[in-house]
Amino acid sequence: MYALPPGRERSLLWLLALTQFTLIMDFMVMMPLGPQIMHAFEIGPAAFATAVSTYSWCSGLSGLFAATYIDRFDRRRLLLAVYALFALSNLACAGATSFPMLLAARAFAGITGGVLGSVVMAIVTDVIPVARRGAATGVIMTAFSLAAIAGVPAGVVLGAHFGWSAPFWLLVALSVLVWLGCSRAVPQLAEHLVHHAPPLAEVLPALRRLLTYPRHLKAFALTFAMMLSHMLVVPFISPVLVANHGVPPAQLSWIYMAGGGATFFTSRAIGRLADRYGRRRVFRVFGVVSMLPVLLVTHLPDLPFAVFIVFFAFFMVAMSGRMVPMQALVTTVPGPSQRGAFLSANSAVQALGTGCGAWLGGLLLSQGAAGQILGYGTNGWLAVALLAVALLWVSHVKGAAEGQAAPAQEKPEWIGEA
Fold first, then answer.
1. At the topology level of CATH, where does 1-139+153-186 sit?
2. Which of 187, 156, 168 is CA-nearest to residue 15?
3. Where are the domains positioned within the chain?
4. Which residues face 367 on adjacent strands?
5. 0.85 cut: is pTM over it?
6. pLDDT tens across 229-244, in order?
7. Neighbours of 390 (CB within 10 A)
8. Are 223 and 353 in contact (CB under 8 A)?
9. What is the DSSP letter of 32?
10. CATH level 2 (architecture), domain 207-399
């Protein structure tokens, strides 16, 4: 465990949060840019969904396999090297002149983003004592709200006025600034190298055991189903609003600001409800509540834009309201010695579910003769059906305290918590 002065520790945490902010913005900003990207490259909803899902698939796989080598390098050097590659991937996105080039750049961004997310959490684990790690993780998690409230709306405005590539130029500039800050604030973190990392012959079987342990599999299935349901709907809201309802792209920023602002205030309250009344119960309540806004947004009539802003805030609160207790429940599944490895694997499953949902959602959509997007209602019904399955399945997801712990020989200690 490394001991940093309080001031330097705070600076480090906020720089890591800004690193996460650029990662999240990089993924989230693609969705509201859908109308411009589809127009610029003359592609349909299915091709656009492939661009969204490519990032998630590559991020999930790279994050999962990062566990096999992340402990073999100095954290600082690995962070700076991978973050530099992440900045280059956004430069490639901004400069893409064809759809295959954009796909390749998004795959590159996903690979670097998946590894970078793992490195950030490894640094937090190395530097912050267990007693203060929850608060430190909360600082890192503010990146999600900041991306929704500020990052994505800024990207939407830039995309509307200067073209779809403008947000990626902004990300390049932000990444360079954060990289410079990290190069000054992140200390050398090589203490873990004193303990020789096990060979791949031991690491890979441990990873396989982690992924196939029955209690873990049930949690992974819940995570995958929820992300599949979520991404059947969310990536296509902006393209449908622009193509079917005539909303100007520049006004989309107000929608994301309303949704991000609402969840910023409600997510913590929902978390407290989950602690008080039970994670499964709150998950089921918000799961049922979210069915109506999912069906409404996928069968949306023409409404005044101000009404839709209010509705979208409610939609995002309902959607996040089911994710908060689910994530809290999933963290109880592994035993203490397996928590770090399990959560890394669960993040990878979440990314893979995100990619599959966006890809499948795009396949179900088509374009009409006038450019309108058809078939979005089918996405809504399928999303609700998957959610119903998840609401039934959640009773099978048990915490470590509710069942027997994993056998000692199945504990992948090569990636356990500090």
1. Growth Hormone; Chain: A; (1.20.1250)
2. 187
3. 1-139+153-186, 207-399
4. 373
5. no
6. 999 998 888 889 888 8
7. 23
8. yes
9. T
10. Up-down Bundle (1.20)
